[in-house]
Amino acid sequence: MTNEALNPALSLSLRLLEQKSYHSLTYELLAVLNEFEEIEDAFSYELFTLSRDIEKREDYSLRRFPMSLDDSEDDENTQLMNRIIMSHKGGVYEINDDQQTYHVLDIFENVKPRRLVLIRGKLKHESIPIVTALFQVYERLVVLLDSKERDNLTHLHNRQTLDIILDQVFDFYSKREALDDKKYSWVAILDIDHFKEVNDTFGHLYGDEVLIIFSRLIEQTFRHTDFIFRYGGEEFLVIVNRLEKNEVEAALERFRKAVTNYDFSFGSITVSIGYTIINPKISQRVLLELADSALYLAKNNGRNQVVYSDHGDRRIDNANDVEFF
Fold it and tell me: Has residue 253 got a pLDDT over 80?
């Protein structure tokens, strides 16, 4: 890198280094890239693989950053992104499509999910080393933050990322003057029944096996548009997005049955689930307390069941009856 490029690269890199989360880091990278005169636009994507066979289009799914809960799966770059995914695995490279030049940062290793940054526009000669340096800094920070924001055992998001993601979901609903459909977001807390007995009887290695398998069952049951966390110990939390009440109830019940029917190496386990609707007019603390109170009822009433908690004495039997504003 020339001396002329070194100072701008360092200055812009410092803006990335100041970020404390993947969310803020990616926002800042896109903002920095869009300050380049020759860059028409910049995009960031996450790639979720649904099976080991990446050659099959239906076995992976793209999520654009930042995710709008209303977004459809496809956007104006979908065909190009499919081509990139099929032909490249990692690195920084240039690609042309319909006489348009793109630059790609493809973070393939040591992260989950795979991350891709797409730049539309032909970079000037003097901008190439600066953007390349930014990509290198961003890649290292993504790997670092990914390990920081995920649970070491299950590789799900850990509890410290919950506030950040809940803020995004709250923001989505609070910006709406009215909800024009019956689809909402929901918080569910999932607790493995009698997990202490597994540890005490079979040892912590078996307990870890249960937690890993349990987390995989969650990933298989819920969608990539939902958010999954290891909440603490044997508790997990799922933010289920844009479903009606009967649909989220069915999804949670489907997961409960998947756990019950799974043949663990020592036998079987069950799960108790408490959930509530996300209302931006209440605090995150109250929201989590409502879900936790529903979980408490599920465990006290015999376990191995799904229980709903509303936002007051009035039980919500139809999500369309909820008054947010």
Answer: yes
